[in-house]
Amino acid sequence: MLNRVILIGRLTRDPELRYTPTGVAVTTFTLAVDRNYTNQQGQREADFIPIVAWRGLAENVANYLKKGRLTAVEGRLQTRSYENNEGKRVFVTEVVADNVRFLESANQQSRNQSGDFFGSRNQPNDRFEQDPFADDGSPIDISDDDLPF
């Protein structure tokens, strides 16, 4: 049997951290994942996937992820049900995260929201933002002494 899910998307809101009565951390958040196609109006639609993370991973997610951050989640699909206050059976499908990767730093995300995209043709402010492939494939002069093999 195999139950693996890998998603890449953006958080729709800040993660919500809670603790069980026994003190186990649990964080819930929703990931907006774009679909590969557009609708009849030419707009791209997204699926909103509920994610649950437990223990140390839950605390890391709650501490370091914020609304809008690009994130990868690896985990398993889980379905469960419970009875709500009105006595109705409610079914829930969610991804239980085993691994969460932060795909952009908070600094990079704030730049992207302001319109200054990483790798743009504007002059970069520091050397870490320079595009190493900006020469479009022109030869690089490296001596044999610089090679590690």
Automatic annotation (TrEMBL):
Residues 105-149 are annotated as: Disordered. Residues 105-123 have a biased composition (Polar residues). The keyword Repeat does not apply. It holds the Pfam family SSB. Keywords: DNA damage, DNA recombination, DNA repair, DNA replication, DNA-binding. CDD domains: SSB_OBF (cd04496). GO terms for biological process: DNA recombination; DNA repair; DNA replication. The keyword DNA repair applies. A motif (Important for interaction with partner proteins) lies at residues 144-149. GO terms for cellular component: nucleoid. One of its GO terms (molecular function) is single-stranded DNA binding. PROSITE patterns: SSB. Plays an important role in DNA replication, recombination and repair. Binds to ssDNA and to an array of partner proteins to recruit them to their sites of action during DNA metabolism. Homotetramer. This is Single-stranded DNA-binding protein. The lineage of its organism: Bacteria, Bacillati, Bacillota, Bacilli, Bacillales.
